[in-house]
Design goal:
Elements lengths: L6 E4 L4 E5 L10 H7 L4 E5 L15 H9 L6 E6 L1 H12 L4 E7 L16 H13 L1 H13 L5 H13 L6 H13 L13 E6 L8 H9 L4 E5 L6 H4 L1 H12 L1
Parallel strand pairs: 2-3, 2-4, 4-5, 5-6, 6-7
Antiparallel strand pairs: 1-3
Helix pairs in contact: 1-10, 2-3, 4-5, 4-7, 5-6
């Protein structure tokens, strides 16, 4: 499948792909790129329906993954934040030869709560879906506030996320809806034992979207993976604790 998703590459060294989350675009990685490009060849992509890839649309997680893979490096370390973590995990499970190492950031194999599994309450996702059909810019703004909530630098984080999103074309509402459906429906928990590459899971202790209990539950299920919890962060540790975040990525991905 040939696509023209918007890709950019920076720096020299081992290939590192960064995937953004729902409602965002790859402008959120500006600071991260500046810190990591001396050590890696950093690749960023606007996922289908977002930013400069807004003209493209994918109907499922598998289709998003296929479109991303078509222009991705042959083999790389893949880092996915939030919904991007699901995309990166799907790629690691279905095209393991393309993934040397996997890093998920504030992500979960199943975002929706279902007792005893912790996550986003289904009624919250349903409310976002109905709000989205009315006014998607307000919905994205609410989601940004939810992502930063609890972080000591919440106001600054929201401002940064907002600047990044507004610096590129608005997302495609159909793609936003598909993304919410993925967050509501996808469950990769049983597939995770099939991961063959080294994996690092990064979390924010104050995250309201991916509760910290997810980290300990996955530690039991994936004893051979590494994890780290950023004590001062909510859903965007790469902004809230930027230097510590980049150090963790460098140490694992090198």
């Amino acid at each position: 499948m040939s696509t023209n998703l918007h890709w950019q590459s920076f720096g020299q060294g081992p290939d590192l792909v960064l995937l953004h989350g729902w409602g965002m675009n790859c402008a959120i990685w500006e600071q991260t790129i500046a810190s990591l490009e001396p050590y890696f060849r950093v690749h960023i992509v606007d996922l289908p329906g977002y930013g400069h890839s807004a003209a493209h649309h994918a109907e499922s997680l598998a289709q998003i993954a296929d479109m991303v893979l078509s222009d991705a490096p042959d083999r790389a370390v893949w880092l996915g934040w939030s919904l991007g973590g699901l995309v990166a995990t799907h790629i690691a499970l279905n095209a393991p030869e393309r993934v040397s190492k996997l890093i998920t950031v504030a992500s979960s194999p199943k975002f929706a709560a279902e007792r005893p599994w912790r996550g986003i309450q289904p009624n919250v996702l349903t409310a976002f879906t109905s709000q989205l059909l009315e006014d998607f810019s307000v919905t994205i703004e609410r989601f940004m506030a939810l992502q930063a909530m609890g972080s000591p630098s919440a106001r600054k984080d929201v401002k940064q996320l907002k600047q990044a999103v507004l610096s590129r074309p608005q997302p495609n509402p159909d793609s936003l809806l598909v993304g919410l459906n993925i967050l509501a429906d996808v469950d990769l928990r049983d597939a995770l034992h099939g991961l063959s590459m080294p994996m690092l899971r990064l979390y924010g202790r104050l995250d309201g979207l991916v509760p910290i209990k997810v980290a300990s539950d996955l530690s039991e299920q994936l004893p051979n993976t590494q994890q780290f919890v950023f004590e001062q962060s909510s859903h965007a540790p790469f902004m809230t604790e930027h230097d510590a975040f980049c150090l963790r990525v460098r140490e694992f991905a090198a």
